[in-house]
Amino acid sequence: MDEDRTSCPVAPEDIRRGDYIAILQLVCEYVPLFGLGPDDGDLPRRMLVLPKEGGIPMRVIEQCLPFVLVEKAGGSHTTLDTRRHRLARLSEECARLALKRIRSDKKRKASSDGSSPDDPV
Question: Rounded CA gap, 67 and 79, in Å?
Fold first, then answer.
């Protein structure tokens, strides 16, 4: 498989300004109502979830761990918490192509339904 076309999980400390990333998994914590064993008690559990916005490319603007400021396809910005999001680094070529197509789809949809093309992803 072509390495340039493969996304790979990235550790928070390896994220750099200008990288293209996508959300792989969302980490959710919960406390079960009943422990699974005698030693479990009220310990929180972690569950990995595939998020709705997973796989959508975002460009890293700045990072101050555990937070990463990213630009979405619509031009809006958001902050990701690397304790809650597992991230993957995308190839620049693939990410740019995906962002270009997402933006053109948003503009086409906005012109047909009257909404703003800068609505967040």
Answer: 6
Yes or no: say if 79 and 67 are a contact pair by the CB < 8 Å rule. Answer: yes
Return all residues near 78 (Cβ < 8 A) that are at least 6 apart. Answer: 58, 69, 70, 72, 120
pLDDT tens-digit map of 75-104:
899 999 999 999 999 998 888 888 888 888
User: The whole model's pTM is what?
Assistant: 0.74
Q: What is the CA radius of gyration of the chain?
A: 18
With H, G, I as helix, E, B as strand and everything else as coil, classify residue 67. strand
Which residues are CB-contacts of 114 (< 8 A; sequence separation ≥ 6)? none
Q: What is the CATH number of domain 9-33+42-113?
A: 2.30.30
